[in-house]
Amino acid sequence: MTKPDKRDEIVRAALELIAEYGFHGAPMAMIADRAGVGAGTIYRYFENKDVLITELYREVEEKLYAVLLEGYATEKPFRERFLHLGTALLRYFIQNPLHFRYLEQFHNSPYGVAFRRDKILGKKGECDVFRELFEDGISQQVMKDLPLPVLFALAFGPLLTVARDHILSFISLDDALIARIVDACWDGIRR
Amino acid sequence: MTKPDKRDEIVRAALELIAEYGFHGAPMAMIADRAGVGAGTIYRYFENKDVLITELYREVEEKLYAVLLEGYATEKPFRERFLHLGTALLRYFIQNPLHFRYLEQFHNSPYGVAFRRDKILGKKGECDVFRELFEDGISQQVMKDLPLPVLFALAFGPLLTVARDHILSFISLDDALIARIVDACWDGIRR
Amino acid sequence: MTKPDKRDEIVRAALELIAEYGFHGAPMAMIADRAGVGAGTIYRYFENKDVLITELYREVEEKLYAVLLEGYATEKPFRERFLHLGTALLRYFIQNPLHFRYLEQFHNSPYGVAFRRDKILGKKGECDVFRELFEDGISQQVMKDLPLPVLFALAFGPLLTVARDHILSFISLDDALIARIVDACWDGIRR
Amino acid sequence: MTKPDKRDEIVRAALELIAEYGFHGAPMAMIADRAGVGAGTIYRYFENKDVLITELYREVEEKLYAVLLEGYATEKPFRERFLHLGTALLRYFIQNPLHFRYLEQFHNSPYGVAFRRDKILGKKGECDVFRELFEDGISQQVMKDLPLPVLFALAFGPLLTVARDHILSFISLDDALIARIVDACWDGIRR
DNA sequence: TATGAATGAGTCTTCATTCAT
DNA sequence: CATGAATGAAGACTCATTCAT
């Protein structure tokens, strides 16, 4: 019942435009226009463009994590948990290309570095699922004994790459292919 | 004694600044400044900023390919060839972080998409080594039977990710770790 | 009490500066300055400098035609109508030297050629008075049987020249002299 | 036998380019290029662009006057002398459109005003033919008793206008039409 | 609270002119 | 004498941000 208030419209417009044109290709005036609000209005909800960008990132990430955790069962065996996460991740990106593009833009920008640092160094709680899972995997000796960031890279690097290729129409992913890809990632990290 | 002529200085400055601040964070005036030349001088060597960016990309890519092909022997067994390329790639990026950052910036920009498309669709000749190698691998049934872009993703996605993590000091790679990482990538693509 | 809104100020400033210094001698920043607005403000009203120039031309031309048609009576004899138009034209330019200079600048520029062509070829409706009058004059055999553009030249060429000379203070026109000049033009075109 | 030395080439190139593109559309580098000389070379012959432009004007004017005076006989009757000058003027412009365009560009620019002033106020000797002729005409009471500049305007204003129209292909002048036009100008100034 | 007109610092690019070779 | 690479001031235009209404 939350009437799609102005803030939501702004966030939606920013997501669409930045995903399509990048940070520098999406001026505040254009975002305001697309959101159907005045240019000044954005500044009632976000201190400045940087804050809008960062905040939008948080929201996108939050939605992503929510979906990843849907049906995620800590008690299931390690491999199954990994496949769940990998598959869910790839599917989410394919179904939400704007979110994927936005995250990509974000990570590949000055904004992204600070976030990555925090995440790797363990400040954020949200991606703990991944950390827990992987630390679990290491200690159970199911996974290769490599530094956590390396395992992340082996597991998710390929997924992000194929997601991008799919969104850019270089390849076309279906459920079967997704499963095989995640399986291949598993081969990369398992002992 | 090779006098570092202006063009070289411009290219060097552009590489440094764009790698660090991105395309939009590196104004022509700043590049000129860092290169120790007048603002107008850049335009004697490059028609405009876009041309500078694209040209610089070509040069970086060329150097990279040259290094990759050093000691690359077509007659060696498939696995060995893959390990050679993967290792060389990762090493190159670690030793030339500016090049890595620049390529990343480039690929993650309007400029990059056209290039990616050409490469995927097979126009460029230089990355044929990769294509040949992988098509070889598929036909010899050493590699998983997956679309070429997917195999590329499995093989190089993790390498790019760890390269970035290393450059951002999130991890520290040495020769031993590099070898293990490339090995893990091999696990991802091999049958 | 009509608040001189920004657009008006910009138009006025542009007219003054371009009339005095020409298109290339009147930078946008200078126009903005003279108009008492910020540099960017001009672009809220005119897409770019070309549009400003063209639009300003239209406004000047419109005012001129309005004055020319004041008291112009189609039913009066040909000679009288010609004298009315010639006199009004010359008076208008003398009273609005900026307009005269601006029109001159405009016609003597890439912008102007297209306009002239359209006018000669008969696209524009506003100068139909002239065309109608002259075609009338030809068919009534009051005027020399010469091509229309030639008659225009004979009739208005001298008027524009003396207008310029007056504005540059090379001569000083009063009503008596104006009448004699227009009369002389009449001698040039009449049979 | 004067080998077409660099200076001549520069003057020729400047004439062509400025006639076609205007002062601001013809950069020094472009002129140098067209002249087949180095950019710096122009400055050996002309102190700066303004001097080049002014000097070029002088040369064009000089050639024009030379042609006008060819066959001009002071002893002939007034009307004949006028027709000679008018016809020669119009013919010259039609045969040398670049010269015409250049003179037009020049007069319609800051450069031109000073020159006009000098000429009207009688400093220059070259156009004395015109002055003498017209003063003659006035004192003989063949011409209307109007200020000299006005007579100039009546006599030559139309000629310049039709010359431009011809060069822009709005009309097409032949010898017969030229004669009739000059005759019409005569009607404008004669008593 | 919402607006959107106004701002001006910052961007890319051009071009007349200089000067070392 | 001739060159043309180098310069940097100047110009058109953009856009994040502010503030009067």
From TrEMBL, chains A, B, C, D:
PROSITE patterns, per database record: HTH_TETR_2
Q: List the keywords (alphabetical).
A: DNA-binding
Q: Which InterPro entries match?
A: Homeodomain-like_sf, HTH-type_TetR-like_transc_reg, HTH_TetR, TetR-like_HI_0893_C
Keyword DNA-binding assigned: yes
**Disulfide bond as UniProt keyword:** no
Sequence ranges assigned to domain HTH tetR-type in this UniProt record: 4-64
PANTHER family hit by this protein: HTH-TYPE TRANSCRIPTIONAL REGULATOR RUTR, HTH-TYPE TRANSCRIPTIONAL REPRESSOR FATR
The protein's name is Transcriptional regulator, TetR family
What organism does the record attribute this protein to?
A: Geotalea uraniireducens (strain Rf4) (Geobacter uraniireducens)
